[in-house]
Write a structure and sequence with these properties.
With 380 residues, the protein is α/β, with parallel strands linked by helices. Helix content is 43%, strand content 14%. It contains 15 helices and 12 strands.
Amino acid sequence: MKKQDRVLLSIIIPTRERAKTLAFTLATALDQTSQDYEVIISDNASVDDTREVVERCLDSRVRYFNTGRRLSMCDNYEFALERAVGEYVIFIGDDDAVMPGALDKLMARIRIASEPIVYMWPLHTYDWPVGNKPAGVAYLAPARAPAELDLKRMAKFVISMGSWKYYDLPSIYHCAIPKKILDKIRVDTGRVFHSTAPDVFTAMAIPVMAGRALNIGFTVTLNGRSAHSNGLGFINKKAFTNIQLFLQEYNDYHFHSTLYPCASGAVNMIPDAILVAKDIFTDYYKGVLFDYDAMWAYVCRLRFASYREVFQKRAEIRRYHAFHPFRFLFFSVIQEISVLRRNILNLIMPLDEFRKDTPDNIQDFVKALAARSSNCRVQN
């Protein structure tokens, strides 16, 4: 595909030395009939056979770029976005997937829309095999009726709850964002991706540019959690090491001045991105206070810190922001109830054949999931 050719949609896959999972991810992205989209592989100076994996696919919709040197995550995202020519942009990870035919369905909806809008969808989560542990399904999101979302209200809730539910907002990750919105962020702020968490930052920046979004109700892309990804790392405790390693690529980056600097990178990454967005878009978020007590409850819920540790260090924490033990306990109860609710929902999740026999790669998984959905529609 030539650079000057315009397409409706750009699927961007930033990658770094994950050729084994990338091969399957790329195959799912190309399992669509439309030619009106591109798949950009932004290779962050990999030393494995990433380039060879991409070149083997022989599909004109694919465009490969190598950064030439190791970049931070945000800089790699900027590098990739600058090369996208689609009217809409979707970022996915190199261990994620696209549902068969889902881009065709999404683009059909985009074409009939009266104006550009942000699109998001229910997200499934697939766990790749790791060591002796077989593949599994962490979450199957139920289909839902299309629903319009009030982004301003949602974003202000995130700030008032110290980062909780930021993931309910659309970001550049697993959402279709009009490129003109991302271009506006760059024009207004100097670049699109600030902080060390591009997905979290854009979740807070997009509401400034777009007051509403549409959850289309059917899955287009889905999360994959592999051995080297932070998603699965949060389960097997390897994410802390991964996060510290990639934070080093930001050189002398300092987290927000109101955050406790002795906390781990895992504790501060998400709140930092939200506070950075709040500072950049001061007028939009004027009058909305970031709740640090709720923040600590949320990071404890994620097991980035322990409740005991937070209480023990409360005097040090108060040097940087207010900390109220009883409010912290109140929000902690809310978070643990949320964890209990999620665990119960996971137990009753209708996994059927996937409960005992999950395909060992994400490409076969999405094919099986699509076939299952098709069979369900026929039976109904």
